[in-house]
Amino acid sequence: MNNSKPEAWLRGPVAEVPALLQPAAHALIQSREEVTEYLKDFPEELLWKKIAGRASVGFHLQHITGVLDRMLTYAEEKALSASQFDFLKKEGEENPEILVENLVTEFSEKVDKALEFLRNIPEENLTNFRSVGRKKLPSSVIGLLFHAAEHSQRHVGQLLVTVSVLKKN
């Protein structure tokens, strides 16, 4: 990663994001920066390659975008749409028409949407109950937002290891 500036969480507050949601905002910003940096000039022919039976770079990029989208939907107390279920079903399916740049852009745009959501959610709504998935598992608005952020970081870490290995081979 570019060491010319500190990590996102060390750059001060993200404008207009409530204090309680600053860690989530910082994690999403950090994820976007790392994805953008590490996938610069990444070879298209490696996008769907799996190493040691692990997920491809393409899967991770689609998955972090899809999960972020789904967590925001649940946080808004909405049901997933047919297109979201279709996206979920196709996460990781090799598709030569999908380009690295498009996946990076889609994730970046979803981070923008998430940051906008964080800026506009009233703090008094953060502990509101939200159900997740078909089983209606219990969560809260803040739980969904933090899961979206930490989940992105977790998959970005896996993605970066996969990118590093693929580039060395």
SSE topology:
Blueprint: H1 22-38, H2 57-75, H3 82-90, H4 100-120, E1 129-132, E2 137-140, H5 141-168
Antiparallel strand pairs: 1-2
Structure description:
It contains five helices and two strands. With 169 residues, it is mainly α. It has one domain (19-168): Up-down Bundle (Four Helix Bundle (Hemerythrin (Met), subunit A)), CATH 1.20.120.450. It has a two-stranded antiparallel sheet with strand order 1-2. The longest helix is centred in the last third of the chain and has 28 residues, at 141-168. The mean pLDDT is 94.
List keywords for this structure.
single chain, 169 residues, mainly alpha, Four Helix Bundle (Hemerythrin (Met), subunit A), two-stranded antiparallel ribbon, 56% helix, globular
CATH class: Mainly Alpha
CATH topology-level fold name = Four Helix Bundle (Hemerythrin (Met), subunit A)
Return Rg in Å.
Answer: 16 Å
What would you give as the CATH superfamily? dinb family like domain
- By DSSP (H or I, 4+ residues per run), the number of helices equals 5
Q: For the residues shown, what is the average pLDDT?
A: 94
Instruction: Give the class from helix and strand content and strand pairing.
Output: mainly alpha
Q: What is the 3D form?
A: globular
SSE arrangement, N to C: HHHHEEH
Question: What topology, given as strand order, has the largest sheet?
Answer: 1-2
Number of domains: 1
Provide a compact summary of the structure:
The chain is mainly alpha-helical. It has five helices and two strands, in the order H-H-H-H-E-E-H.
